[in-house]
Design a protein that fits this description.
alpha+beta; 9-stranded mixed sheet; 6-stranded mixed sheet; 22 strands
């Protein structure tokens, strides 16, 4: 008996085949920066080839169908190149970077309400023109603005125009190994410069009049401010509960405690406080339940779908229209439309279509972690939820409901955990327990908050709904913190590379396909992938055990140096970096995870310390972090690296007369103006220098 023919998923979901070459074109353009002339030539050539194909006889066209498919793929790849090139504002003739020079004046529009930071007020700015001598050049481009706390910048509002005269700073990475690539992240937002402003550096131009305000954007900001004011007035609880309530409803995170956020991350429920598909899914389910019970509406499917979409997008506006919410709304919009208009609905096609349009709008979404996790989680649930659920039969109704929720969590985790490990280097071991408790609880809180916003004008309703939200968020926080305090709650410091991440996906794909189809070939593929993963891991460990390095970190206003041997490291620097968890986690921890440094020791057996010198095998390193008394010596002291730290009182000529140094390093504990002065002196004396603030962290291999 012949097997029934199974239609492949890409046959009834054609957008899967269309999105792949588009993604290939986006990636190619970002990494290879193909010129617009080449892109235009490719688009014209492939378009003509596609049109000429229809001039062939039908019989020949049928035989050459693979060629037609190749042309379409190349056309979409070229389109991906084009939209990525066009999205990069640096290719626009009107970009302010083409005209800006030092000492230029900039007319900048405030593009969002100011956000208070520990040492400044932050806002996105939009450059409208560059003023050079007597000429005004209209231009465009985003700019990151920081106003000092002692300035009057906090009075600025959305739409205000200011005149800025302050040299812009190019956004750079810290260069610390393994750290988040902030420069690339900002570039994806089309932001390439920032500026820190004091009162003397800017002037208000509009004086409250003639603001350039986008009405839709103004409505979004006003709605967001209204929601925050209602929550702050009615949620009768502590700061942590209020912060979670704000984050859960509209994604506002400025009032969140960082340790609490880390606890949510460690326990695998951080998605609760990041507006995403889960929140839109809860709203979507609620709307379906409501409209299915309203007479007349429940009979007209088209009307029901239209009202659901309107309510979904109103919620998006109410929450501030963050990128993550828009992504989820687009995804659910296509799913809802597909169910309503298509007789043979394919959720894969709806997902691929929504992703295709999102990437056409902004190709840099491809590198957005939220974008990746949103689609991976939904695809994981669609593929694996039913097979996971069918693995266990439970008679009890309520136990079965719990198992259904667990199956959803496991299915979502199967396709998201490799990406989470790559970006966050940790795995929440107890994610099943926390999701079983926190997800339903978050649903009740979200529904209660929606009722609170809708009926807060009724004193009685606002009072008790606010108390209910406070109690529920407090309960959720206590559960999460209790689980986080367990020693085995999280598997931390997991090293990962792009290659190892793809290998994990190969293992998951092979094992999943084998369990679903029972095809042994997939099982063999999973085993081979696991073998390659193991070999890669063993090789990485072998390389780690051989490493001998010195790392001079880029930590603003601090001294931070690691002497590395194998997986052990000796730290030399400011003690606050050992005490302050946030400073350590942000600047030092990523590099130590990247290099798999597991143990800090007081001293390494290959590093000898005497006075200002450290001898590491055949390398001599000097650290000058306090004033020295330079004495005339008959012979200069040979030093491989001389690290100048904490602004010691010295002159470069004194150093040159005392030390025969191969490399002088200035770290970030020195003032920038002093480093610039020292660098000029070094250039005059032909000394090789390295500035940590301008060039990033220095990783020096001892064996070289």
């Amino acid at each position: 008996m012949s097997r029934p023919y199974v239609i492949p998923v890409w046959k009834h979901a054609p957008f899967i085949r269309l999105i792949l070459p588009l993604i290939a074109g986006i990636i190619m353009q970002w990494y290879f920066q193909v010129s617009v002339q080449v892109i235009a030539a490719a688009l014209i050539s492939f378009s003509i080839s596609f049109l000429l194909f229809f001039l062939l006889p039908v019989s020949l066209r049928f035989k050459l169908q693979p060629l037609q498919g190749l042309i379409i793929n190349l056309l979409l790849l070229s389109f991906g190149l084009l939209i990525t090139w066009h999205k990069d504002i640096r290719h626009s003739n009107d970009w302010y970077g083409n005209y800006y020079k030092e000492d230029s004046y900039l007319v900048v529009r405030i593009d969002e309400p100011l956000v208070e930071k520990p040492k400044s007020f932050k806002a996105d700015g939009y450059v409208e023109s560059v003023i050079e001598q007597d000429s005004t050049i209209p231009c465009k481009g985003k700019l990151l603005l920081y106003f000092s706390k002692d300035s009057t910048g906090n009075v600025l509002q959305y739409g205000d125009r200011i005149l800025v005269r302050k040299d812009l700073q190019a956004i750079k990475n810290s260069g610390n190994p393994g750290t988040f690539n902030y420069q690339r992240f900002a570039a994806f937002q089309q932001i390439f410069h920032n500026v820190f402003l004091k009162d003397k550096d800017w002037m208000l131009l509009n004086n409250g009049k003639d603001k350039h305000v986008n009405q839709l954007q103004q409505f979004i900001f006003s709605a967001r401010a209204y929601v925050l004011s209602v929550l702050r007035k009615t949620v009768d609880a502590g700061k942590d509960e209020l912060g979670i309530a704000q984050a859960l409803l509209i994604g506002y995170k400025n009032d969140l405690d960082k340790d609490l956020v880390q606890a949510y991350s460690n326990t695998g429920v951080v998605h609760i406080i990041a507006i995403s598909g889960m929140h839109l899914g809860l709203i979507y389910v609620l709307l379906i339940w409501i409209f299915a019970r309203i007479p007349l509406i429940n009979r007209v499917k088209l009307l029901q779908t239209g009202l659901i979409l309107i309510c979904l997008w109103l919620f998006v506006l109410l929450t501030g229209a963050a990128a993550s919410v828009i992504r989820a709304a687009v995804m659910f919009s296509f799913i809802a439309a597909g169910k309503s208009f298509a007789k043979k609905f394919s959720v894969y096609n709806s997902l691929a279509t929504s992703a295709f349009l999102m990437l056409c709008y902004d190709p840099y979404f491809l590198w957005n972690v939220g974008f990746q996790l949103s689609y991976l989680a939904v695809i994981g649930i669609i593929i694996f939820q039913k097979p996971v659920y069918n693995c266990l039969y439970i008679k009890n109704k309520w136990a079965d409901k719990i198992w259904q929720l667990m199956a959803v969590s496991v299915a979502a985790q199967l396709l998201t955990f490799p990406v989470c490990i790559y970006y966050f280097h940790q795995f929440p071991n107890l994610f099943l327990i926390t999701n079983i408790i926190a997800v339903p609880l978050a649903g009740f809180i979200l529904y209660a908050e929606i009722l609170l916003i809708a009926f807060s004008w009724i004193p009685f309703a606002g009072l008790y709904l606010g108390k209910l939200v406070g109690v529920l968020t407090g309960l959720m926080n206590k559960v999460i913190l209790w689980v986080n305090d367990l020693s085995f709650a999280v598997w931390d410091k997991i090293p990962a590379t792009v290659f190892s991440t793809w290998l994990l996906y190969a293992i998951v794909a092979g094992a999943g396909a084998w369990l679903i189809t029972k095809n042994k070939s997939w099982f063999k593929f999973a085993l081979i992938s696991l073998l390659v993963f193991s070999i890669q891991h063993i090789n990485a460990r072998w390389q780690i055990e051989k490493q001998e390095k010195i790392i001079i970190y880029n930590v603003p206003q601090h001294q931070a140096i690691d002497f590395v041997k194998g997986s052990n490291y000796q730290f030399v620097g400011d003690s606050i970096l050992l005490e302050d968890g946030m400073l350590q986690n942000f600047h030092l921890k990523p590099g130590r995870i990247f290099m798999q440094l597991n143990k800090r020791v007081d001293s390494l057996n290959t590093v000898f310390h005497q006075s200002i010198f450290y001898q590491y095998k055949d390398k001599k390193i000097g650290i000058i972090d306090k004033p020295l008394l330079f004495e005339t010596q008959p012979q200069k002291t040979d030093v491989d690296i001389l690290i100048i730290s904490k602004n010691p009182g010295l002159s470069i000529s004194q150093l040159a007369n005392t030390f025969n140094c191969k490399l002088i390093v200035f770290d970030t504990s020195n003032p920038l103006w002093k480093i610039e002065k020292w660098q000029k002196e070094c250039m005059e004396l032909n000394l090789k220098v390295y500035s940590i603030p301008s060039s990033g962290a220095l990783v020096y291999n001892i064996g070289i």
